[in-house]
Amino acid sequence: MTARPLAVVGASAAGLAAAEALRRLGWRGPLTLIGDEPHLPYDRPPLSKQLLHGAWEPERLLLRSKDQLAALALDLRLGTRATGLDAATRTLTLDNGETLPCAGVIIATGVAARTLPGAEGLTGVHTLRTLDDALALRARLTGTGHRLVIVGNGVLGCEAAAVARELGHDVTLVGVEPIPMAAAVGTEIGELLAEEHRAHGVTLRTAAVAGFDTSGGAVTGVRLAEGEADAREREGTRLPADTVLLAIGSTPAVGWLGDDPALDTTDGLRCDAYCAAAPGIYAAGDVARWEHPVHGRPVRFEHRMNASEQGMAAARNLLAELAAEEGDQSAFADAFEGAPPERRPFAPVPYFWSDQYAVKLQAYGLTAGADRIETTVLDRAGRRAVALYGRDGHAVGVLAAGLPPRQVRGLRALIAAPVPWEEARERVRAATATG
Amino acid sequence: MKITLDADKCCAAGQCVLVAPEVFDQRDEDGIVVLLDAEPPAGQHDAVREAAAICPAAVIEVHE
């Protein structure tokens, strides 16, 4: 009996990691990898860094070589969008009209960049999520001295601002939050970053964006909303710009799943602690909102590390479920080699990093949503700092700026599981006292 | 098994060192990966494969 395929929807970091893990763990049956972009799987973090800068060309971003992909024996469907899933029968619909009944499905469709009303079709207004986005923005910023307004002062906006300054452009970073990246890392680390951006000549503004000034279909400026947070800045509510980058966050790509009552698609695809959204249906990466067993609440991360780790976890748990499934098992057994893996809750220590100028931030655990933050600036001019993030009396996250790798790894061990706040404070002090 | 690195792509996450500390290390000054053993013994192979799969910058290539 021929096994139905396993399908992975989404051919970026999480989807690729899932496909590789399915093979590594013993799946020898058909394996379909579906990606809506035309490109071979590539890495996204360099888009706002080395690729935008021009230091790297797109080939450098490929996650695997053609030979490595060939060894996976994939039914690789690039430039193909999944348009529907019937969870009960595990059947995918594709944009070419094809229906694909599967033995199991891993959903890794990621997120899509948010945009603003009036931005569509306007020359010079960009988002930055895909390789094509990054190449278009890079082409737009050819030469020096462009007037670039970046809307959104989160991680992406900050990284793009740093690169654009290094390329010699005039950069204004506009955020509704007065301090860059404050929601992700807190106000004190955010203020340290703000100082670094100002020192490199970035103009920081606090405002919402009301719209765009245009001429002949091209953007000529950004209009800031009246009543912006800093009233002193109100006189200049128009920022001239020939290029605008919208870096205002993203939305999970769940629209294609429709309103199947078996799936909860509120802020991502909701999964249990095993990354399962429904029997035989798993999710991984930016799109997955799963019950973190250590933190005891549903979380969703748009972090590169989580994409790989969760892709691997979803693959493992899907195979474990299929191996244990009731019914005719001959098809699965024929397509599987070795001992089926054990089902394991997915309990990673989250990690993210950000590079801005020469500053590297590295964070473990949960830094957003903290109810207390203690930041120790070790060297203000050198942008060396450590911050501890707490929730409900426990330390749940830690961030390092400019610390040596051994110390950074030590900090990870410290918050691998929530630690009582006072104990964690002492340990952070001890860990950073010698550096 | 042979390991090759594209260390210019390394983002200094250090996940390889956590997974396979006998095979990978990081430079003290910038955290860039250092290969301790390019042909590790069989007992390390699973850890090395995991490190390659998990590396967030696709730096580690494993030839088997």
Automatic annotation (TrEMBL), chain A:
GO terms for molecular function: oxidoreductase activity, acting on NAD(P)H. Pfam families: Pyr_redox_2, Reductase_C. GO terms for cellular component: cytoplasm. Residues 6-311 form the FAD/NAD(P)-binding domain. Keywords: FAD, Flavoprotein, Oxidoreductase. SUPFAM superfamilies: FAD/NAD(P)-binding domain (SSF51905), FAD/NAD-linked reductases, dimerisation (C-terminal) domain (SSF55424). Its cofactor is FAD. Residues 351-423 form the Reductase C-terminal domain. This is Ferredoxin reductase. The lineage of its organism: Bacteria, Bacillati, Actinomycetota, Actinomycetes, Kitasatosporales.
TrEMBL record, chain B:
Transmembrane segments: none annotated. Gene3D superfamilies: 3.30.70.20. GO terms for molecular function: 3 iron, 4 sulfur cluster binding; electron transfer activity; iron ion binding. PROSITE patterns: 4FE4S_FER_2. Signal peptide: none annotated. Residues 1-29 form the 4Fe-4S ferredoxin-type domain. InterPro entries: 3Fe4S_ferredoxin (IPR001080), 4Fe4S_Fe-S-bd (IPR017896), Fe-S_cluster_ET (IPR051269). Keywords: 3Fe-4S, Electron transport, Iron, Iron-sulfur, Metal-binding, Transport. Its cofactor is [3Fe-4S] cluster. Ferredoxins are iron-sulfur proteins that transfer electrons in a wide variety of metabolic reactions. This is Ferredoxin. It comes from Streptomyces natalensis ATCC 27448. The lineage of its organism: Bacteria, Bacillati, Actinomycetota, Actinomycetes, Kitasatosporales.
